[in-house]
Design brief:
Blueprint: H1 2-17, E1 27-35, E2 39-47, E3 53-61, H2 68-86, E4 95-97, E5 100-104, E6 109-113, E7 117-119, H3 120-128, H4 139-157, H5 177-191, H6 198-211, H7 214-217, E8 223-225, E9 234-237, E10 242-244, E11 251-253, H8 256-267, H9 277-292, H10 299-312, H11 315-321, H12 327-330, H13 335-346, H14 349-355
Parallel strand pairs: 4-10
Antiparallel strand pairs: 1-2, 2-3, 3-6, 5-6, 7-9, 8-11, 9-10
Helix pairs in contact: 4-9, 5-6, 6-10, 8-9, 8-10, 10-13, 11-13
Length: about 350
Amino acid sequence: MREDLIRETRKYLSEKTGPCDLPDNCFNLKQFQGQGATSSSYILSIELPDREERRFFVKCYNQQNEAEAFWKDQLLRDYEISKVLSKIETERGLLRIVEPLFLLKDNFALVSEYVEGMPLSVYLFNNLKLSIITKIKNISEIEYIIKEVGLSLGGIHSLDYSLFTQGNACVSYKFSADFYSQKIDYFAEAIRKKIGDKKLLRDGVDYFNSTIEKIYLDNMSLTFEHSDFIPQNIIRDTKGHLFLHDFPNAGLGFGYCDLAHFISSLDDYTYLKTVDKRLVRRLMALFLTAYSEVRNVDWELLSAFLVYIQFYSTSILVAREVKPTLYKRFLLEHPVKKFENNISIYTDMNTLKDFLALPS
């Protein structure tokens, strides 16, 4: 991939700034944050003649040998959707979009400008990890960021979804009741052996399936949905700006998967017993309140999708990835117990509002 990347980067720089004849040793490719399940990330650094350095972010999909057409579609979707969004100014919120620059289709790679900073997930963890025993000095800054993320997501969900139905930016309507029901059934079966309360498991699935029928009964309007709207996919740069990236799974939906995903991701910090749970709940409430300033929230659907996210994205991933030997070291909550507790909370709207300290 390196040779193709250098060639295409030279071509891109030549189009933007004039002929680029830098030797290969001026290009340095380094892996960034390890390899993920479906993609790997790299930083391409270029030493320019004036001794300045320019960086690019390179995301490379790992699955090119299997289901090639599918992964090329994922690559094009990520590129085209982020291209469209990066040119749109939403009315509310300060969240920006990382603009993609070019593709290496044969290498399944997407190249964008590098944003110097850290994932919002790391920023929050660094500030919240000891919040139950130490006072957070910059709590007003954290609250401001969470509010802006909520406003921004409301702005994105308020965009005319026809913007994403042209050419390669076309997003599919895959977020149907059948799609979600199949996924929650699959994950419920996968975790059945880990959960002691089988009735709770069945009740959670039944509650979700019965509630999402409301989508069709009320003829709810479609919106653009990111589908992986979590702090890990938001970068906070060195100037405090926020950037959203990673759009391969975006589609037309109803917004509640994004809402539930972000709220649940905040709740994940409470796995650590040294994190102030009341503070995290306040951040969850701030996010949701800010979002509702832009777009109305249907509490039934939000509670249903919070149940859905518990099954496939948060508690179960932690249960699978965190080794039992590390529990005492990090003072972690038991993932299965937390999963059961969350399902009990999320299947009751009044309890959920109390949990978030919101008015009924």
